[in-house]
Input
Amino acid sequence: MTSRIAIDIGGTFTDVVAERDGHQWTTKVLTTARAPEEGVLVGVRAALRLADLAPVAIDIIVHGTTLATNALIERKGARTALLTTAGFRDTIELGTESRFEQYDLNLEKPAPLVARNWRLPIGERMAADGEVLRPLDEGTVQEAIGILRAQRIESVAVGFLHSYANPAHERRVRELLRAHLPGVAVSLSSEVSPEMREYERLCTTCANAYVQPLVAGYLERLEVGLRAAGFRCPLYLMISSGGITTVETARVFPIRLVESGPAGGAIFARHVAARHGATRVLSFDMGGTTAKVCLIDDFEPQTARVFEVARSYRYRKGSGMPVRIPVIDMVEIGAGGGSIARRDSIGRIAVGPQSAGSDPGPACYGRGGNEPTVTDADLVLDRIDPQMFAGGKVRLDPERARAVVGGDDFAYAIVELVDEAMANAARVHAVENGRTLQERVLIAFGGAAPLHVGRVADKLGVARILVPPAAGVGSAVGFLLAPVSYELARSHYVRLRAFAPESLNRVLAGMAAEARKVVARGAPGDALVEVRTAFARYVGQGHEIAVKVPVRELVEADGETIKWAFEEAYLAQYGRLIEGIDAEILTWTVTVRNHAQIAERLPVTLAKQAPTPIAWREAYDVGQAARLHTAIYRRADLVTGDAFSGPAIVAEDATSTVIGPGFGALIAMDGTIVITRRGEA
Output
């Protein structure tokens, strides 16, 4: 018998899933923002009671958290300094010198995490090939240590020019820092992000240093709390690439926890897609604070090498802080159940990105909130059952919601605006990636997504929606489906016409050994899968294309093999090749994981019977801007083959699914609500 627990901390709710032999019990509790581990322990105890499990019976705990992300967005990290090569202290402020909004004369770039007076120059210089051009001046390091001590610096990022090629100077600086400032955390760019492009590398290292003390302290408190509660099992952390890793790795590289919750959601959506044979998917994850959309093709979420945190301009690439880590590519906006609605000085209505969070939360929570939110609007429109919300753990006050929202008109405007914001985010994300949306299947999960997915589908022209079981805690369920994995990247320059694999083989073998060591700690004895990727481009270009590389000792003939793979990928993306120009590779990655769980395709479910509603309600339909006679169903009562038409609402503990008048619904074999536009298969 295998028993596991998954924990997902969101901005409003902490979701916990207990699993025993394939059966799952879920619970939601309000996030305790000032001490997140307290909410975690409350939720874990509740889930154990539901599952009738003791702490000692749990074999593994998998955890995802927004702690690192929120610290970066809210600028609530450690007092951080940057030690960098003399002459390059302003790299993180100059950036790429590009304008993400050409016509905004008052354009504001995001401020760097480290203020200029805490960016300290160090005498040293490496060449691009790793040759020492100027030895490390330890005198400048000692001067910097004095400043760090006087300024009570808590964490230090060390990022030298070309340290990815030769990390010797960075490692020596760490030795000196540990000797003279033993309580200060240290992050080296040659370990956090050992790749070319110093702006992204330094930003990533600074971000890692900025959140490291915060995350390390939280993980220590959580481990102590779990041990005190009687748990004796290992704790693993979800990372941004869609895998899980050990606490030890998470402490050293907390930047990899950024977007860990949404990554779990994408893994969850991938499995739902596989069960239903949906090869073109748009996953839609809407919780209490944010909404996330992700493109999934052929059951694989789209991935990226760079992620932007805290974009100052919604949807605008380049307006955020670049973090070079392996990440599931998605767009995230401040649109959730707790998003606050307001009128400006001339009467215009705006929703988000500010959120009421869990404290005080929406006005209807009765915890002191006095501003209208999306949840308040949904309650006023009778789209939420106040008795079933969060399994009855959070009793909603409809009168309080009406007091801050007023009537249907303002509530309608709030919901319509937030739905349009999410639909527009999906459109922009698709255009940026050269994709279309109309042929895709929408998979909705998160506490608020099933409430809003019907209207979003209308706006996007999508004809089919899947709302899986446990949709309200989908990201946490995704944690239990994720493999133990780790990815390493290294910059190693290669021209394909002069492909000499000797030094490259040493680099790749070293990367593989390091990644396997990390994964083996979390999956001892498991068979491991290794994937190698080269990021190639035509000589002189500015962006690369990912190309798979054979997992073996490379030989000279593989230069031609990699070239063919590159040209095939280039042709697929750009529609043409460039004749007569050599290709070059700047960066190589090695990913190691144990075997991921793959869901089996379900047989087609046929409609068999029409269920009887438990009630009828005059609920507001946003598409028709009117109240309609709406059937209410309890999800736990529905069985395979049940079929019914909208307008309808399916209520459950963690969420409610709104089905518009233009759609029909069918309960599939796995309990998924399959919603289809009438007249379309």
Summary: DSSP finds 16 helices and 35 strands in the chain. The chain has four domains: 73-215, 259-482, 486-594, 615-677.
